[in-house]
Specification:
single chain, 272 residues, alpha/beta, Rossmann fold, seven-stranded parallel β-sheet, two-stranded antiparallel sheet, 9 helices
């Protein structure tokens, strides 16, 4: 793992950082000394994330934001601008898809599409897809096209293989397409855009079901942040712009271990 404090001159924004993968990413960037702006709906949870980022060695500014509302998203970027900061790293991690997986006492996440609630489509696409576009649009106003910049869209294998339900797969495929086309339009700049696939991440929700899961090859949320920090520091990352990157594979390439010292093994399309 590279020397810490290598990001102490760089500002990042991580959306959806009140818990789960987003929280871990913020902490991982904090390990490298970054100033990290974080968003989420629950201010108390954001404050907990901010404290963890500071304990890891970074600076953190929590901003309450519901990314279903474009004006709130825009206000986040205006706040960063008013603080006099340029933006170097954007991680689009806001996600509302795992809410209300149980409806009327029944687990409906894996229902066939004709039995899915239309509200689930709206929750997943308004936050998990639309906010990638909106946040990236406003973020570019704070990113210098002639300096290294990185936009990371958190995605998953459901983009390429049926996992869970139709809506989930469509949203992740859309995220990957946003990545490839955004990179195409940014090709004359030094800003890179990638889709990043975590493995099985030990989020709060996953750990609630830990007794029923094989966690031997799982990843901590903070592990993903370490990977993103090293992606930004990698002079070769422009070659990956527009592509899908596997977090565990990058970690092996960068010689990064997880917080428990383990080296997660990269998943493949066949092993998901």
């Amino acid at each position: 793992m590279k020397t810490k404090n290598q990001l102490d001159q760089y500002t990042a924004l991580v959306t959806g950082a009140s818990r789960g993968v987003g929280r871990g990413i913020a902490i991982g960037l904090g390990e490298y000394g970054s100033t990290v702006y974080i968003t989420g709906r629950n201010l108390e949870a954001l404050d907990e994330t901010a404290e963890a980022v500071r304990n890891a060695g970074g600076t953190c500014i929590p901003i309450q934001c519901n990314h279903r509302y474009d004006d709130q998203t825009k206000a986040v970027l205006e706040r960063i601008k008013s603080d006099g900061c340029m933006l170097w790293i954007l991680v689009n991690c806001a996600w509302g898809g795992y809410e209300d997986m149980v409806e009327d006492g029944k687990f409906t996440w894996t229902n066939k599409f004709w039995d899915q609630s239309i509200k689930r489509w709206d929750k997943i696409f308004e936050v998990g897809v639309r906010s990638i576009f909106v946040t990236s649009k406003y973020a570019l106003e704070l990113m210098r096209s002639d300096e290294s910049g990185l936009i990371v869209n958190i995605s998953f294998w459901a983009a390429k293989k049926y996992v869970g339900n139709v809506i989930y797969g469509a949203s992740k495929a859309a995220a990957d397409k946003l990545t490839s086309d955004m990179a195409l339009e940014l090709r004359d700049t030094k800003i890179s855009v990638v889709s990043l696939y975590p493995g099985l991440v030990r989020t709060e929700e996953v750990m609630k079901a830990a007794a029923y899961l094989d966690l031997t090859n799982s990843e901590s949320p903070q592990f993903i942040g370490r990977v993103i920090a090293n992606m930004f520091l990698d002079p070769g990352i422009p070659e990956k712009s527009g592509k899908v990157c596997i977090a565990a594979q990058l970690a092996m390439d960068y010689h990064i271990t997880d917080i428990d010292g383990k080296q997660p093994h990269p998943l493949t399309l066949e092993t998901v």
